[in-house]
Amino acid sequence: MFQKGLKGVVAVHTKISLVDGENGVLRYHGTNVKELVLDYSFEQVAYFLLNDKLPTEVELQQFNEKLKEGRYLPLHVQKVMDALPKTISIMDAMRTAISTFSTAEFLQMQIMEQAIVLTGALPVVISRHYRKQLGLPIIEANDNFSHTENYLWMLNGTIPTSTQVEALETYLKLTMEHGLNASTFAARVTVSTESDLPAAVTSAIGTMKGPLHGGAPSEVLNLLEEIKDESRIQLVIEEKIKNGEKVMGFGHRIYKTEDPRSILLREACLRLQGSDPWLDLATKAEKEIIGLLDKYKPGRKLYTNVEFYAAAIMRSIDMPAALFTPTFSVARIVGWSAHVIEQVDDQAIFRPQSLYVGKIK
Questions:
Q1: What is the C-alpha separation between 332 and 177, in angstroms, rounded?
Q2: pLDDT tens for each residue of 293-314
Q3: Predicted local confidence at residue 318, as pLDDT
Q4: PANTHER family, per this entry (predicted)?
Q5: Distances in Å between the alpha carbon of 255 and those of 23, 258, 259, 286, 357?
Q6: DSSP calls for 7-29
Q7: How confident is the model at residue 144 (pLDDT cuts 50, 70, 90)?
Q8: What domains does the chain contain, in order, with CATH numbers?
Q9: Which of 129, 147, 178, 252 does the annotation list as catalytic?
Q10: b/e per residue, 346-359, with b = 16+ CB within 10 A?
Q11: 129 is a catalytic site residue
């Protein structure tokens, strides 16, 4: 049976995550993501996703050491990045830099080690090109900082506040993995040919670059910027509904109820209430917008999706729109790597058929 875009077609069996759209549940290795997000750090959740178990203290220390190893880019990667024109996008710089990791020495490492090193390297690649675009000096990694703290440090050159770190880390943990999405599928297809992890991650980054996959939070940011103040929420939303415009940040192709990631991001924003005006605006706007959508579009069940609060968090830490998709990738590289490892262990090349609909002469 032909399904355009393979919609609804089961292509793999996976033990990594369960995305239950009907009941609004997301599980990593069978564990409700809420349990992981509330109780564990980025590093611990990443380890869990890659290994299907939480680390011991020794295992976490070893994981962190390997993650920090990735913060120091090989000299040839630095040279390639220095040669890139600053006019190319950050996503293109990421794709190019990650592809150059495929040296004989790197590929001799165990694939799990490769995954951890690339996870540690990606924030460095992003911050390096971002600051190059702005004409600013490179900020070296700080090994006293966690993964999330270090990313914000390298981007801005200032020590991030605890509010900024908590907000961003919650987002990163919630977006590490989400089933067989477009970029994850691209990674699995690439490695199914017996290619390597850097090639698979390069494919995934190229896929993530597309606005239909990785660009939604920037559209929500435009909405929040337009609202600006809680007194304007009803005016802005009713105008959009009247004009037939889509209200960004509401509705999801998979979830038929509330997106569990948006619930947890909302809870994070509520915990931080009063610490940032953009987080406060988001929580107030969400409640009013849902009421307006229910009033003007009854029965549609347009719940908040993860992009709504992602945009609020990005805005609260002064992260420009150009960094939204790269930051999404900082989280999702963990999921890509987990799927690549699973694909290697259960090897079968993807070879779907096409149906010819052209002329016959």
A1: 6
A2: 989 988 887 888 888 888 888 8
A3: 82
A4: CITRATE SYNTHASE, CITRATE SYNTHASE, PEROXISOMAL
A5: 8, 7, 6, 17, 34
A6: TT------SSEEEETTTTEEEET
A7: very high
A8: 13-210+321-345 (1.10.580.10), 216-316 (1.10.230.10)
A9: 252
A10: eeeeeeeeeeeeee
A11: no
